[in-house]
Design brief:
The chain is mostly helical. It has 20 helices and two strands. It has one domain. It is globular and about 65 Å long.
């Protein structure tokens, strides 16, 4: 097993531990029920993978894709009709920002311009509103469209990395995943980020060759720039590319990573200049990084999102971001033991459940019983996916497959990243296509593809 394979195995083991610990952290022993149901469901489906794969193998590629995508669309439309119409929490803010831009009043609130939220998702939603009109149903349809693109991207990367049957399994899992189905009724940035990361991983792999073109490097930089506008943590993806390329390309890897990083910055530059003009400071993308970091790393933090009292010196969103970022780093460096405790808690809250997305889907607008059932369904699906990813990791060796190296490094990067920032289960949605791909690799273990379409 390679270094990446061992790192991937550690991520999967940590995921399993988080599933076991989350009900204990919540003090809710009944929370073990959906986990056990999901593990049982996953084990049962894995046992039946061969006959199910044989049945799926009878369909042509077009027939299977149309059937699976139709199933995904019906599920998402049903979710949109069932769950509350209005957006809530951060997603309500995204909706308001997009409506403001589409309405011609600029990117900000009633009191003036802002850069608190990254602009990627709101600006794309504003473009959608400019075409179809501003409204709650228009936002719902946007979420469904984005969710469908995420499903298709999942299929493409799994098929490309692991083969035809793995791609089909990943497509079915993405189409029916309760997490992705429920979350498609929102206008969250995570499905969009997932699509960008799929493109990033495939481009990074193609650029591992010494004969790769500069056009591909420019495309990679543009994709990473778009990702940075969606979520600023993508700013460090060139470093992940460098780690991927360095063993085989040596100094060429440094040149390519630097060139891609330059394109990234050029994509982000217009937004940075806008921030400098309206805020009086060259804010690269957004002003919420320090706020989120300090909320998850302070003397009172439990690792979750929390409100904190203003710190001395805060007078606008730019100063607040800087002061809280500095305070968070100072606290982490001064309290390493406490930070380690929080890091463990963050793993549990990000990877031990998928139920906290209901704070965006419902936000206590559904009955307690209905919301509890929805949370249980989410955790059954999440635990079943764990079984498939376990098989993909330890039986299929998915992390060591050459075409999955970049995706695997990206998954490890995002796992480590959320040891520092606030912990919410929606943070694993951005890498779920990679998880579905690993699961697809696991579900095709021992399954013989048709000879005419078997891969060498």
């Amino acid at each position: 097993m390679t270094v990446l394979g061992r790192a991937g195995a550690a991520v999967i083991v940590a995921w399993g531990a988080a599933l076991a610990l989350f009900p204990i952290y919540k003090g809710l022993w009944l929370g073990f029920a959906p986990v056990l149901m999901g593990l049982g469901l996953g084990a049962t489906l894995w046992r039946w993978r061969s006959p199910l794969s044989s049945w799926m193998d009878r369909w042509s590629n077009r027939q299977f894709a149309v059937a699976a995508l139709s199933m995904a669309l019906v599920a998402r439309i049903a979710a949109a009709l069932y769950f509350p119409l209005a957006q809530s929490n951060d997603h309500e803010m995204f909706y308001r920002l997009a409506a403001s831009v589409a309405g011609g009043t600029g990117y900000g609130w009633g009191y003036g311009p802002s850069a608190f939220f990254p602009p990627g998702l709101p600006l794309l939603l504003a473009l959608w509103f400019a075409v179809v009109g501003i409204g709650l149903w228009q936002a719902k349809i946007f979420g469904i469209v984005l969710g469908m693109v995420c499903v298709w991207a999942t299929y493409r990367i799994a098929d490309w990395a692991f083969g035809r049957m793995a791609g089909r399994w990943a497509l079915v899992l993405a189409a029916t995943s309760p997490t992705l189905v429920f979350y498609s009724v929102t206008v969250g940035y995570e499905p969009l980020l997932a699509v960008v990361l799929c493109g990033w991983a495939m481009l990074t792999e193609r650029l591992e060759s010494r004969t790769a073109s500069w056009a591909l490097i420019a495309a990679l930089g543009a994709v990473m720039g778009i990702g940075t506008l969606i979520k600023p943590v993508c700013l460090l993806l060139p470093a992940v590319c460098l780690v991927r390329w360095l063993p085989s390309l040596r100094l060429v890897a440094v040149t390519r990573a630097a060139a891609a990083a330059t394109i990234l910055l050029l994509v982000v530059l217009p937004w940075t200049m806008r921030n400098w003009q309206v805020l009086g400071s060259p804010v690269l993308v957004s002003t919420n990084g320090g706020v989120v970091l300090y909320a998850a790393n302070n003397p009172e933090s439990q690792g979750l999102a929390m409100g904190v009292a203003p710190l001395p010196g805060e007078h606008d969103e730019v100063s607040r971001d800087r002061i809280r970022r500095d305070a968070a780093f100072a606290w982490m460096l001064g309290h390493p033991i406490e930070w380690c405790r929080l890091a463990i808690a963050k793993v549990v809250y990000v990877w031990g459940t998928s139920s906290s997305i209901m704070s965006y889907v419902s936000y206590d607008r559904m009955t307690t019983g209905a919301e509890s059932v929805a949370k249980a369904v989410l955790n059954v699906g999440w635990s079943a996916l764990f079984v498939f990813c376990w098989a993909g990791t330890f039986q299929a060796g998915a992390w060591d497959r050459p075409r999955f190296h970049s995706a695997g490094l990206g998954l490890v990067y995002f796992f480590v990243l959320h040891l520092f920032f606030e912990a919410l289960s929606r943070h694993h949605i951005g890498v779920m296509p990679f998880l579905f791909a690993i699961a697809g690799a696991g579900l095709q273990v021992g399954v013989e593809p048709r000879r005419s379409e078997a891969r060498a």
